[in-house]
Each structure stands twice: as C-alpha cells, then as structure tokens.
Amino acid sequence: MYRTVRLMEAYGLSSLGSNDLPKLDARVMEQCCCIVEESFDFTYKSLRKGGAISALELRVVKHGSFDELMDFYISKGASISQYKLPCCLKTEEAIKILNSGMVGKFFSPKTIS
C-alpha cells in the first residue's frame, strides 16, 4: 500500500519560541486534508477508494524547515539556481530533516467520496 504525504510550512510560527507553538485545530487540518485530496485526479481517487493508497497525511513543519532541506541538497551538489522543493523524498537524511521540524501530523478520513 502506498502512502501520500503532503508537507506544509507554518509561516506564522517563525517569531515564536519553540515552546510557544500554537495548537493546530485537528478538525480544521483534517478539512485541509480533504480539500487537498479532492484536488487529486481520477486515478488517485480510484486507487484510494480501492485501497491501493492509504489516507493522505498532512505534516506541518516549522518555518525554515524547507530552507534546511534546500541547504542539505545544495551541500550534496544541487545547484541553488535550479533548486526546487522535491515532490518525493528518497533519502533517510532528507526525511529526518523535515521530521525534526514537524509540529503536527493529520490524516484524511479513512474513506473518500
């Protein structure tokens, strides 16, 4: 079974201390998952309904996490002028960078319409 994970950087968190992070409303974030999932194409929806793809996961990361990821890829030889956020992370180190900045994790409902 495949899993779809979307990442969202929380820009409003940059001025807060690490212990002062606001609580994310789970109901609102689950609605965000549904909206994202509804934007996907027919193939995704068919695979999701058939159980080949599990529930969409939305991870909220603190401000600056995507910059840390870019710094990592540039240190590995990526061109700064050609860099864009990858749609798929394959290295364990890149995944650890984003997981270290995670402030919330939310899932879409078990079934979709």
Automatic annotation (TrEMBL):
* GO cellular component annotations of the record: cytoplasm
Q: Which residues form a coiled coil?
A: none
Matching Pfam families:
GH3_C
Entry's Gene Ontology molecular function annotations: acid-amino acid ligase activity
Q: Give residue ranges for domain GH3 C-terminal.
A: 25-92
Highest taxon listed in the record's lineage: Eukaryota
InterPro entries (alphabetical): GH3, GH3_C
* Annotated PANTHER family: GH3 DOMAIN-CONTAINING PROTEIN, INDOLE-3-ACETIC ACID-AMIDO SYNTHETASE GH3.17-LIKE
Protein name per UniProt: GH3 C-terminal domain-containing protein
Tell me the organism's taxonomic lineage.
Eukaryota, Viridiplantae, Streptophyta, Embryophyta, Tracheophyta
